[in-house]
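Whiteboard transcription, Tuesday session. T.W. wrote the C-alpha cells on the left side:
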C-alpha cells in the first residue's frame, strides 16, 4: 500500500541527536520541547501496555467501521514519560482522520516509559503505525534504524497517476548528468538545495555539507571552512536555499538560517530573528527575504526583521508553507488552511473557493515572461485530484493542469522553474521525477526512462545558460538543453 506524500522526507538528514524535528507533513504546535532525538535510545520510548487493545477501546467504532488505510503519528515522549503528538501523515483522508482524533487520544494516554540513553531517561520521539481494515485498527511502533541508513539515499518507485497519457520512452534533446559520492566530491547523495547565484555559481545543499560549483569546479564547504555549524550527529544538514537581490546566499538548517555574502557568514536563529521551524525561503526582487515556517512568516529587509502572523496579518493559519512575491509586489502566502494575497492595504483570501488555491496548497511558484504565475499544488487528499500546476494570468484568470484534464502525470509538485528563453515550464513531481511542459507537449524524465536518479527532486533551478539543476534524494542532477 503506497501511503504518503513526503514519506521519504521522514528525516531531514540523518537522525538529529540534539535538535528534534516534525517528520510528517501535518505538524502540530504545543509540545514545547525543541530538543529531542528521533527514535533513539536503548530501550526506546514505549507505552507500558498493549497498544492495539488500548486504541480499540478508545477509537470511535463508527469512525473505524469502513476505514481501510494507514496513518503514522509521531509522538514526543519527554524524559518524564509524557506523550505529545508532533506530526502525522495518512491516506485516510482529512475528514476521517479528524473523526479518529488520534492526536487527542494519544495526548490523553497515561505515562509512557521514556527512552533511555546510558541509563538515563531522555526526550525522544517515536512513531505509531495505525493500520485500519475490517472495522478494526492494528497499532504498532514504526521503528527506524538510522545506523543502516548512512546516506539515506532514495530512488523511489515511479507512480504515474495519469494512465491515459502516453509519454516518450526515452526523452530526447537534453544532456543529463548526475553527481554522487561515487563520481564527485559531493559529500552526501541526499540533497535538498540547488540554486545558482548571479555569477552563475551553483550552490548545492546536502544533508552533510554545502557544495559550491564555480566554472565546473566543486568546492566542499562544511563546519571546518565556513560559518556553517554541525549538529549533534556532527553533520551539516541544509534544507532550503535562495539567493537574494544583492547576491547573498541564504540557507536553512531547520531552526536557523545562514547568510553568506561571499566573505562573511551570519547565522540567525530564534535569539536574533523571529524564526522557529523554517519550511522554506523566498527572496524577492526588492532585497527582501521571506522565511515560511511553524510560526507564520518572517521577513528580513536587509536591515531588520519583522514577522507576519495569523494575529497581525490575518494569515489563514499559524504555520505557513509556500511564499511568493510577484512582479506587482503582491505577497502570496500559503498554508494547509488556505492562501492569502497581500498587497499594500489589500488582502485577498483563497479558501474553499472556486480557485485552485481554494482546494489545494501551493508549495512553490514562478512567474513567466508574460507575467503569468505558475503555482505547484499539493493536495492532502489521497486521490490527488487537485495536484498539478495552476497558471494565473495577468488579467486574473486561472488555468489548472491536473492528471484528469491534461498530460500532467499526477501527484504533488515539489518545485517549479521556468525557462524564460525557451518558454518551458519545469516541475519536479513527487514520486515521478521531472516534468517538462512547453504549452502543448508534456515530457517526463524518470528513473525508468532516463538517468534521473530519484523520483524525489526537492529543488530545481535554472542557471543563466538555461541548464537545470536538481537536488534529488539520490544525487545532483544537471540537465543541459540542446
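and on the right, the sequence the group agreed on:
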Amino acid at each position: 500500500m503506497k501511503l504518503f506524500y513526503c514519506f521519504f522526507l521522514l528525516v531531514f538528514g540523518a537522525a538529529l541527536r540534539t535538535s528534534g524535528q516534525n517528520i510528517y507533513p501535518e505538524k502540530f504546535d504545543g509540545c514545547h520541547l525543541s530538543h529531542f532525538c528521533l527514535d533513539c535510545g536503548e530501550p526506546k520510548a514505549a507505552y507500558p501496555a498493549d497498544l492495539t487493545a488500548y486504541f480499540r477501546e478508545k477509537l470511535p467504532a463508527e469512525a473505524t467501521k469502513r476505514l481501510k488505510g494507514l496513518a503514522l503519528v509521531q509522538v514526543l515522549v519527554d524524559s518524564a514519560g509524557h506523550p505529545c503528538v508532533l506530526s502525522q501523515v495518512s491516506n485516510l483522508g482529512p475528514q476521517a482522520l479528524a473523526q479518529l482524533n488520534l492526536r487527542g487520544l494519544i495526548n490523553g494516554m497515561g505515562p509512557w516509559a521514556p527512552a533511555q540513553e546510558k541509563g538515563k531517561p531522555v526526550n525522544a520521539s517515536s512513531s505509531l503505525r495505525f493500520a485500519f481494515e475490517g472495522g478494526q485498527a492494528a497499532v504498532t511502533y514504526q521503528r527506524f534504524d538510522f545506523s543502516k541508513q548512512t546516506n539515506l539515499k532514495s530512488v523511489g518507485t515511479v507512480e504515474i497517476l495519469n494512465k491515459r497519457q502516453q509519454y516518450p520512452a526515452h526523452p530526447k534533446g537534453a544532456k543529463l548528468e548526475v553527481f554522487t559520492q561515487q563520481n564527485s566530491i559531493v559529500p552526501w547523495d541526499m540533497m535538498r538545495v540547488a540554486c545558482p547565484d548571479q555569477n552563475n555559481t551553483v550552490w548545492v545543499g546536502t544533508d552533510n555539507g554545502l557544495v559550491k560549483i564555480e566554472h565546473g569546479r566543486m568546492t566542499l564547504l562544511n563546519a571546518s571552512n565556513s560559518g556553517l555549524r554541525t549538529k549533534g550527529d556532527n553533520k551539516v544538514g541544509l534544507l532550503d536555499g535562495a539567493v537574494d537581490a544583492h547576491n547573498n546566499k541564504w540557507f536553512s538548517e531547520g531552526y536557523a538560517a545562514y547568510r553568506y555574502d561571499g566573505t562573511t557568514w551570519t547565522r540567525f536563529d530564534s535569539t536574533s530573528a523571529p524564526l522557529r521551524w523554517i519550511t522554506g525561503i523566498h527572496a524577492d526582487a526588492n532585497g527582501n527575504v521571506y522565511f515560511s515556517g511553524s510560526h507564520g512568516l518572517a521577513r528580513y529587509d536587509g536591515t531588520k526583521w519583522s514577522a507576519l502572523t495569523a494575529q497581525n496579518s490575518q494569515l489563514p493559519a499559524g504555520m505557513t508553507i509556500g511564499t511568493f512575491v510577484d512582479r506587482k509586489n503582491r505577497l502570496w502566502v500559503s498554508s494547509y488552511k488556505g492562501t492569502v494575497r497581500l498587497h499594500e492595504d489589500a488582502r485577498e483570501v483563497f479558501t474553499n473557493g472556486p480557485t485552485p488555491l481554494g482546494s489545494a496548497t501551493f508549495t512553490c511558484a514562478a512567474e513567466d515572461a508574460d507575467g503569468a504565475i505558475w503555482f505547484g499544488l499539493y493536495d492532502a487528499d489521497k486521490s490527488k485530484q487537485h495536484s498539478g500546476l495552476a497558471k494565473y494570468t495577468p488579467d486574473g484568470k486561472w488555468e489548472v493542469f491536473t492528471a484528469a484534464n491534461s498530460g500532467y502525470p499526477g501527484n504533488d509538485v515539489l518545485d517549479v522553474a521556468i525557462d524564460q528563453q525557451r518558454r518551458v515550464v519545469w516541475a519536479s513531481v513527487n514520486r515521478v521525477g521531472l516534468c517538462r511542459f512547453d504549452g502543448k507537449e508534456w515530457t517526463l524524465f524518470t528513473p525508468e526512462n532516463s538517468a534521473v536518479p530519484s523520483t524525489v527532486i526537492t529543488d530545481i533551478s535554472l542557471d543563466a545558460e538555461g541548464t537545470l539543476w536538481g537536488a534529488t534524494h539520490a544525487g545532483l542532477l544537471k540537465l543541459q538543453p540542446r
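Someone added at the bottom: Residues 1-20 have pLDDT under 50 and may be disordered.
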